[in-house]
Write a structure and sequence with these properties.
By secondary structure, this protein is α/β, with parallel strands linked by helices. The protein has one domain: Thiamin diphosphate (ThDP)-binding fold, Pyr/PP domains (Rossmann fold). The chain has ten helices and seven strands. Helix 1 packs across helix 4, helix 3 packs parallel to helix 4 and helix 5 runs parallel beside helix 6.
Length: 280
């Protein structure tokens, strides 16, 4: 089976599981979890070096989910990658579950307790600096939200990364243009993201963040420029894959009803059917 097609199918399956655990838990950040699935799948199933049997391997690539409120799809990806059994996902949102509402390092594969926005890039800069000082070959990937760019600490970290020329650092912005309060351009204009990071010494790529082939091709070629951190601005659709959730700010933190879940799963099953090699 075509490699890209396989990743696309995995992304749709991850979206299905994400919606199911949010529905069962009766809480979750649906819109942002769905928008970043393709990014997570491209990284975990094509790019990152890791060993789920040895999640603290010093040679592993590091991934930080800075937009930690979108933890539901992240948990589904980690489970699919073998860091913990699939049945553990059934406990999400329940008493004494190891899977909290934001990423916690007690879960195998998670590098940082995140969710308080604006911290992930700073920690990523530290990890990348440590890798250089220790002469390690790992890369550090940090996934941020676009609303998260409002945090001043993100700019400070970006400045440090450019100053130190951290070409082992890749930051990704999930640019879905919606945050909890509404449209990002109304709340705090972000149309200067490219210029902002370029001024701080970053190499920048912009792409369709829901196009698996484009994502894989970009991630595979990084780093492009020595002594520069790399930024991927991934233009995504909040609520990607579900017609009545896409581009709706109200679905930032919202749980589907049983009827909405059934309709969403039906739509995703139709997408999988169209991806089948046996479909004419």
């Amino acid at each position: 089976m075509n490699r890209i097609r396989s990743l696309q199918q995995k992304a749709v399956s991850i979206r299905k599981r994400t919606l199911q655990i949010i529905y069962e838990a009766k809480h979750g950040h649906t819109g942002g979890s769905l928008s970043c699935v393709d990014i997570l799948v491209a990284l975990y199933f094509d790019i990152l070096r890791y060993d789920p049997a040895n999640p603290t391997d010093p040679a592993r690539d590091r991934f930080i989910m800075s937009k930690g409120h979108s933890v539901e799809s992240y948990y589904c990806v980690l489970s699919e990658a073998g860091f913990f059994p699939g049945e553990t996902l059934n406990s999400y949102g329940k008493f004494n579950s190891p899977l909290a509402g934001h990423p916690v390092t007690s879960v195998p594969g998670i590098e940082l307790n995140s969710g308080s926005l604006g911290h992930g890039l700073s920690v990523g800069v530290g990890m990348a600096l440590a890798g250089r000082m220790d002469k390690k070959g790992y890369k550090v990937y940090v996934l941020m939200g676009d609303g998260e760019q409002d945090e001043g600490s993100v700019t400070e970290a970006a400045m440090a990364a450019g100053h130190y020329g951290l070409d082992n650092l890749v930051a990704i912005i999930d640019r879905n243009r919606l945050q909890i309060s509404g449209d990002t351009e109304r709340i705090m204009r972000l149309d200067s993201l490219t210029e902002r990071y370029h001024a701080l010494g970053w190499y920048i790529e912009e792409t369709d963040g829901n196009n698996m082939e484009d994502l894989v091709n970009i991630f595979r070629k990084l780093p492009v420029e020595a002594m520069k951190p790399h930024l991927v601005i991934a233009n995504t659709t909040k609520g990607k894959g579900i017609s009545f959730i896409e581009n709706q700010a109200g679905w930032h933190h919202k749980v589907p009803t049983k009827e909405q879940l059934d309709e969403a799963l039906l739509q995703l099953d139709e997408q999988l059917k169209k991806m089948s090699p046996y479909e004419s």
